[in-house]
Write a structure and sequence with these properties.
- The chain has 470 residues and is α+β, with helices and mostly antiparallel strands.
- The protein is built from 13 helices and 13 strands.
- Helix 2 packs across helix 8 and helix 9 packs across helix 13.
- The N terminus is likely disordered.
- It binds heme C (2 copies).
- One heme C binds next to helix 3, helix 7 and helix 8.
Length: 470
């Protein structure tokens, strides 16, 4: 065989060999990006991933939207930002009479997490099960009570409080008293790592005063919730029910001390009980109902899913706000090759954090094509887990017990303080740092928490460096 003869001169061959080598390397790199091995991929949100780790990282449309999708996304952005006012007004009338804030973005600032403070913190309330109270806790006569959508989806173990529904609205339109004033007192707790390093945690206590000055009766159950980040949720909506069911292990058959289960909640459109995914106890079935409930409960804006005598907004506006949260992209992971981050990822797996914070999932079908069939890294199983008495609110929410919470997705976690100047973690924002959040883990996560506490300081730092790379 004559390789260098004829048309194949030596320099020409070398040029081709060089080119082939380049193509092979490029293909290898591309396959690493598209079909990453293990969980080590920068593409946290599959093809929706955005290469933006700046202060606007949570506000980017998914990278793979079509031109039409993108137009709809920007229309949705306007709905999400719209500030509602007291009727009569030409646009965005319908605020109140009771509300917590006047726009979605007022709580979900830059789509990031909120603070446990007035205007962002929600207090959910319910009557103890099987206990009837005739006392109306509303500031107005019963006939003037504002509509409470929660009553519409009221369920056995979360009975609404007469006059308050299942959420306290601590603001009201001009001339009307709010339902209550909420004040938070912080209790400090001192602790020590086994190596002697001290740490400090804090937990909130809500002081709730009803409009006539009387305290909220002590038998009323309360649950404090801060707004979680709202990007990547469309992908979570696109995870097949069957996947969530396969992750569940309610009887802990694999004996790892972790026994997640999906919440079962009411779907108002389907008029059926379905798996819950959204909200901090997974108490909403989908983003449409989550958004509709936010309009009516958080802003007092009635809508086609939760109308009163009329709707303050039409179906199109409700769909636009829903589309906005569905079509946000997920920020890319960073520092994949950093040795400390790599070690931290290994420790995260070793400590069995992944028993709940599932690293990799595959989405199924979704009406928004961009969300379908994506390999994603949310670090959540969307299941409910008993997190122990320290984090308990003792207020059930559908199937979720008073100690159960939905595994918080950890994607984008490291950008918390890039997006906003403060950080507040866990359902009520008690944790001022990621480290404090891990230290609060108890119940099913007790073993993982103990493993974290028992690590050498440099290993704890590596684990936190990994979380900050998300
Ligand atoms: C008063 C503050 C406030 C306002 C206003 C508000 N939200 Fe929220 N949002 C929250 C809180 C708190 C939660 C967690 C609720 C829970 O666990 O029950 C939440 C949860 C969500 C979730 C679910 C996130 C997840 O991880 O499951 C979505 C989606 C959402 N809100 C969208 C909206 C939209 C759309 C609007 C406007 C129509 C809106 N929110 C208005 C505070 C607010
Ligand atoms: C048994 C399940 C489980 C295990 C194991 C577990 N977590 Fe969690 N994690 C949760 C749940 C549930 C929440 C939400 C709790 C809440 O909001 O009160 C959470 C919240 C967090 C948060 C706060 C996120 C936020 O947005 O506020 C961080 C950080 C975190 N976990 C890290 C870890 C690390 C690190 C480990 C391993 C050492 C771990 N988790 C093990 C279930 C678990």
């Amino acid at each position: 065989m004559q390789i260098f003869g004829g048309r194949w001169s030596k320099p020409k061959f070398l040029k081709w060999a060089w080119l082939c080598g380049l193509v092979a390397i490029a293909t290898l790199l591309l396959s690493q990006i598209l079909h990453p091995t293990a969980s080590g991929s920068p593409l946290a949100g599959g093809q929706t991933t955005v290469l933006n780790r700046s202060s606007t990282a949570y506000e980017q449309p998914a990278a793979n939207l079509t031109a039409t999708d993108l137009e709809e996304h920007f229309a949705g952005d306007l709905a999400f930002d719209a500030v509602f006012v007291t009727p009569p007004a030409r646009v965005n009338a319908g605020l109140g009479p009771h509300f917590n804030n006047s726009s979605c973005v007022g709580c979900h600032i830059r789509n990031g997490r909120g603070l446990p403070e007035k205007g962002q913190l929600l207090v959910r309330v319910s009557r103890p099960e099987n206990q009837k109270t005739d006392q109306n806790l509303s500031p107005e006569p019963a006939s003037l009570n504002s509509y409470h959508a929660e009553d519409y989806i009221a369920i056995e173990n979360t009975p609404p409080v007469a006059g308050l529904g299942t959420q306290i609205q601590d603001q009201a339109v001009y001339g009307q008293p709010p339902e209550a004033q909420v004040e938070i007192n912080w209790q400090e707790h001192q602790g020590k790592y086994p190596d002697g390093t001290p740490y400090q945690l804090r937990s909130p206590q809500a002081l709730i005063t009803l409009s006539k000055g009387q305290p909220l009766p002590p038998q009323i159950k309360t649950s404090l919730r801060i707004p979680p980040p709202v990007f990547g949720l469309g992908l979570l909506e696109a995870i097949p029910d069957a996947t969530l069911q396969s992750l569940a292990d309610p009887e802990d058959q694999n004996h790892d001390g972790v026994s997640g289960r999906p919440n079962r909640v009411w779907d108002g459109q389907k008029q059926a009980e379905v798996i819950g995914r959204f909200g901090l106890k997974a108490n909403q079935p989908n983003l449409f109902q989550q958004s509709a409930a936010a309009y009516v409960n958080d802003m007092g804006v009635t809508n086609p899913l939760f109308p009163e005598s009329n709707s303050d907004i039409d179906q199109q506006t409700l769909k636009a706000a829903t589309f906005y949260v569905q079509s946000l992209g997920v920020p890319a992971r960073t520092l994949l090759d950093n040795p400390e981050v790599k070690k931290g990822e290994h420790l995260f797996t070793q400590a069995n954090c992944i028993a709940c914070h599932t690293a990799t999932l595959q989405t199924g079908a979704h009406p928004l094509q961009a969300l379908a069939k994506q390999r994603i890294h949310p670090y959540s199983d969307l299941l409910l887990h008993d997190m122990g008495p320290g984090l308990a609110d003792n207020r059930p929410d559908f199937l979720a017990s008073g100690t159960e919470w939905r595994t918080a997705p950890l994607w984008g976690l490291g950008l918390t303080q890039t997006v906003l100047p403060y950080s507040s973690f866990l359902h009520d924002g008690r944790a001022r740092s990621i480290e404090e959040a891990v230290l609060w883990h108890g119940g099913e996560a007790q073993t993982a928490q103990k493993t974290f506490k028992g690590m050498k300081e440099r290993d704890r730092k590596a684990l936190l460096a990994f979380l900050n790379s998300l």
